Structures are given as C-alpha cells and as structure tokens.
Amino acid sequence: MACYARHASRNSSRIGWCVVDCAGCGRPLLLGTKRGRPARYHNAACRQRARRARLATDHGDVLTAVAAVESAAAEVRHAVLANRDTAQAASRLAGAAAELARLVTPAPTVPTDEPPAPPVTKPVTEDKPRTSRAKRPARIAPLDLDTVRLERSSDPTRTGWRVLAGAEDAPVLVGFLEPMLSVTGRRSGRWEAQTASLTRVHGGPWRNRTEALARLVDDYQRAASRPRRHTIT
What we know:
Layout: E1 2-7, E2 14-21, E3 28-31, H1 44-58, H2 60-81, H3 87-104, E4 149-152, E5 161-167, E6 170-181, E7 187-195, H4 209-225
Antiparallel strand pairs: 1-2, 2-3, 4-5, 5-6, 6-7
Helix pairs in contact: 2-3
C-alpha cells in the first residue's frame, strides 16, 4: 500500500489518500480518507473474480478433475459429430468421471456402536518397515504447439475461450482466456489467463488475447519440463 498527502490550499488541512491493488483484477485502487472499512475491489465483477480465485485455490484437485471431465466430454462430442468410434473417448470420460466422483464423495463414517475387537491371543511380530515410494501424480507432456487452438467457452458463467491442444479426438485442456472488465463493467481490452485448474497465470493481465495465450502456453510448457520430485515414505 502506498499513501500520499497534499494541501488542497494554503489555509486548508492536508488531504491524504492511499493506493492499493484490487484483490480481484490486481490494478491500482484509490482509497480516500473516509472512515470505515476500506474497499478491496473496484466493483462486483472484481469481487466475483477474487472469490473464484479463492475457490480455485481451495479446491484445486476437484476443479482439475472437473476440467478433465469437460475435456473428455468434448472428445465424445467430437467423435459423435465426426461419426467415429466413441469407445475410446467414452472410456476416458468414464475414468475422468470416476476420479471426480472419488474426490467429491465424502468418506464413509465409522459407526460408534461397533462391538470391541476381540483380544489378541497370538504373539505379534513386528516386521521390518519397508521403504515405499508415494504415488506420484501423472506428469503432463509438453504441448505440440502446432495443435494449440481456441474454442469459445460453452459455460454460461465464463465469457472467454478454452485453450485446447493435441488431437481432435483426444484434446488436452490447457486453460482459459478471459477478457478483463473495467471499473464500469465494460471490457477493458486486457486479457487474463488461467490454467485448467483455474489458477491465474502470474504476470497478467495482458494487453491482448494473443499475448495472454502465449503466456498460458509458456506456463504449461514450463510445468511439463519441470523435474519431478521423488517422495519417499
């Protein structure tokens, strides 16, 4: 936060103001000297954008699974419209849906009125603990840049574009591009890039859609080339 002060006239008192970054769009937000809770957003659109960013951070795994289901559903749609075999695409959709169901299904509760376990009568021998490797997440493959393409979002809550890559029958969801709104709620001409898990790409917003697309693809390629960490448990 940066604060400033000046004299309105020779005989008047000092007038002060502070400048902070809007929690929604990241652009400067001018704060006056009025008492009360200071503003954090330019408008309702910025407030909604910040809320979506918080939810994306809290539920990153679920949103990634949702994006995988959407991508698999798009594969099925393309296969149907192209009159191709849908078995492979349907199998991927079923797997993505099962993973999403696993993440959103609450763990079963253990009843408290179960009878106590019978006492152990046999001697218990302790085996030497084995060192096992934790299951590593699937590593994403670098994109074929010649296959990167834009598809207008079919989600009514998103006004931008989906960025896809790969084959038409097995597209990879790279992320999203959305136009930024001004303080008045109109398009400002700048663009924001988000990953498939709805995480905002650092450095935005950008001057145009092409620049935002380039930064999103670069962020994906960097993640794909990043060395994997081996966790031993």
